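Pasting two entries for a bug report.
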Amino acid sequence: MKKSFIISASILSLLALSACSGNKENTSTSKTTNSKVETKKEDKSSNSAIKESTISSSTLSSEDKAKQEEQGKIDNFNTLSDNLKYLMIGTTVDERIKSGLEGLTLYYTPEGEFTYIYATSNMGVGHPFYKLKVDNNSVIPVDGVVRESSNTYADAPVDTTPVSKAKLYDEYIANKSLYDGAATRVEKSQNTESASESFDRQKSYVNNSKYKDMTMEEALNKGDADAVARIKSLDGTWKPSDGGANMIIKLSQDGNNLSASIEGQMVGSWMINASSAVNDGQNVILTNAGQGITDVFFNTKFIFKDDNTMEMFDVENFNYNSNKWVDDTTFYSRVN
């Protein structure tokens, strides 16, 4: 009996162990199955996130890619050197710049929200002076003025449509070598007169008859014989009141230019605008000899006290940027 009990106990023990082992396997299998289910859920969730991200990226690309590219070009434009930036700004108003500024120098002046551009050969006339507004993203041409002759100014029309800096950057990249070379001929203006004052002054001359060219012949045709006679009376020899050497003034054959010499040395050469003798009074003759962005319109003024006595005024220090007349208190009396 005792032996039989021991065997039965052993059998029960083995059955218990077997059951226990079975439970562990079932638990393990259950955990594995659950793990696989969770993994599948995570994979599904991850795939869904990727799809959502792809859709979002695709939407961003179609709607904002162009804006992002444009902003990138604007940022690139703003990092260009000053010479290149103002050169490209100038292309919005002056076609000569697109040819590489051959024989020209581009002067620029930033003043507040405006920028002033002037490309010139430093000789002659016909070089427009432009006013533009530059903001964070674009360049907006505002107005222009051009000196057509020694005494005549005119409007220089501009297209006031804003031009994106991105477009200017594209133009620069497309012709990089041309503009890099032209940038060596760009300078910041050093004129003492502010660009805004100069621009406004020159605009004031447009359509002002006082500053229109009038030859001696035209003045005569208009019946201004007295004015012409006064201009012609400058021709001759004049003795200064300070005891210096005589000054000889010669009137050109056409009567539109004067030259002055002292002891054989040329001391002055002027262009005569006959209308000045009319508009400023027959006893006043204004002449002009300057050129450039900020010329004083007239640089010498002759005032007759009587038929045989006159006084000369020059702009301060012969500086074309000055609007101040200087009287050296020297009078000239006619010798012949």
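Entry 2 (this is the one that rendered wrong in the viewer):
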Amino acid sequence: MESSLKYFKHLFDDFITGGKYSGVVSDDVINTTRSASATNRSIESGFGFVDRLFRHSPHMSVPRREAHLMISKNHTMAWLNSKSSEERRDIVLTSRSSVPSIRAENEKWKSHLAREILKRAVEREREISNKNALQANKRLKAIDAISSDGIVTSLAGLGSLLRSYTGSARVAALRAQIRFRERALLQSAPEQNIYTLSTKGVPVAEAELHRRLAVLIEDDRKGSHLVPSIDHSLVGRSIRRWKGEVAEDGSVVAVQKRGATTLVCLNFPSETISYPLPEFEIELDLGSFELLDDLL
């Protein structure tokens, strides 16, 4: 009830006692608003009329659509039929004389609209590109942050990680593991705000980071996300990938299960990437990747 009172007070604040529109209404206001409608039915009716034109005549030009609307809502044909035949002829001829200028103005408007649409499309593509670049940069930083410790995939591994560091370094290691799961593995959040590592500028405490990473590891081990590397003949193999004429050498660091999908994890100096095993085998056949051991 209190919230409703605040809402309606804000809505009618200018009209209740003390508001700028309260008190005696001047003759100027009365004259200015004399022809104003008491409801918005006419406006809504106009919207409905134009909406019908869009459905039934989608390619109709804007000036023609506006003319249909004004003729209908202003009862123009009834007014025109009330004139004599000579008056009707003069009115129609005068109206037709403005058609070329209206068409020219419409073409000018359409060209301007097309330019604006193209401009906004380019801006949107730039925004998407910048966003993707930012996400890729965050992903690379997340991978670099755990490069010395590797991925913690069990509670025992978490205990070892905690024993390896003290103080702020331990907090940083916990944050790095959580960020890696968020930005590199793209692990779904098992609970709300689990990846929010600060509140109003205040970092999450070490104990809470420990708890969250344990939750992520347990959720991971259910089989819906990444699990430790399985025994596979590809693991440890040296590999070369081609980007056009440029080659980059790396290695197969793991073959892992993510639910029903088997992922091949490849480590290169520039990045660490994962491919579904069937897709990776196709890329091998196409020559995008080469197993260096097979070339010896």
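Dev reply: Rendering is fixed now. As a check, the viewer should reflect this: The beta strands are 198-199, 202-203, 238-243, 246-258, 261-267, 272-276, 289-291.
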